[in-house]
Amino acid sequence: VPLVELRDVHKTFPAARGGTPVEAIRGVDLSVEAGEIVGIVGYSGAGKSTLVRLINALESTTSGSVRIGGREIADLKERDLREVRLGIGMIFQQFNLFRSRTVWGNIAYPLEVAGVARAEQNQRISDLLHFVGLADKAHSHVDELSGGQKQRVGIARALATEPSLLLADESTSALDPETTQEVLSLLRRVNRELGITIVVITHEMDVVRSLAHRVVVMEAGRIVEQGPVVQVLSDP
Ligand code: ADP
Ligand code: ADP
C-alpha cells in the first residue's frame, strides 16, 4: 500500500461572516509511495498547506478518503491518531523552534511529549545531533544559531520520533541560496540513509528540481499536473 493515499478529497472552509465558503481542496487524488521525495508546487492559495494539514490529520476532510500506511484517518480513535501523527515529522519555513530551550531541549521536546524513556531520549538526541552536524551546539540557545543551523535543529526535532514521513512546508524559503543547498543535501541524506519518505511544499522550482523525484502541481484546489520532475518542469 502507498504510504499516503488521498482519494477524491474535498475540503471546504465554512464562510466567514458575510462571506462565501472557501473550497480549498476540490477533488484531489494523490499517492505517495514509501521512499519517494515528492514536491508539491503551486501559487499562494492553491491549497498546498491545506493538503499537508489533511495528510498529518490537523484538518479533517469535508469528503473523500485520506489513508496513511493503509489506515483511514477519519476512522481512527484518538489513541491511534496520536500514533499516526508521531509517524509524521514536520519542518517549517520559520523553523518554529522554542527560543527558551537549547538545541538539545528542542530535539527532546517531542520525545518528552511521547513519553520516551530518558536513556532512550539521550541516545536518540545524541545520534540526531551527529547526523545533522550539530554535535558541538547541543547546549547552544536557538538564538545563537544561523538560519541553516536552526533548520537543521528543526529537521533533527522532526526526526526524533522516528517518523516514516517528513513533511516540509516552505522549509528553505527563509534561507539564502548557499544555506538552501546545505539543507537540501541534508534532506537527501534523510531520504537515502534513513529511508524516510519526504513531501516538500514549495513555490521554489529550483528546490523541487534538485530534490524531488516527482512533482505535483496544484492550482485552485486541484492537482493539474503530476509526474517525474524532468517531464513536468521545462528546462531552465
Ligand atoms: P497555499 O498553501 O497553496 O498557499 P492554502 O492551503 O493555505 O494554500 O489555502 C487555500 C485556500 O484556502 C485559500 O483560499 C485560503 O485562504 C483558504 N484557507 C486556508 N486555511 C483556511 C482556514 N483555516 N479558514 C478559511 N480559509 C482557509
Ligand atoms: P530546558 O528543557 O529546561 O530548556 P535543556 O534544553 O537544556 O533544558 O535540556 C532539556 C533536558 O535534556 C534537560 O533535562 C537536560 O538535563 C537534558 N540534557 C540537555 N543536554 C544534555 C546532554 N548533553 N546530555 C544529556 N542530557 C541533556
Automatic annotation (TrEMBL):
The answer, when asked if Cell membrane is one of the entry's keywords, is yes
- What is any one of the record's Gene Ontology cellular component terms? plasma membrane
Name its GO BP terms in alphabetical order. Answer: amino acid transport
* Superkingdom of source: Bacteria
Give every ABC transporter domain span: 4-236
Q: Which UniProt keywords apply?
A: Amino-acid transport, ATP-binding, Cell membrane, Membrane, Nucleotide-binding, Translocase, Transport
- Describe its partners and assembly state: Homodimer. Forms a membrane-associated complex with FtsX.
The protein depicted here goes by the name Methionine ABC transporter ATP-binding protein
Full-sequence range covered: 12 to 247 of 353
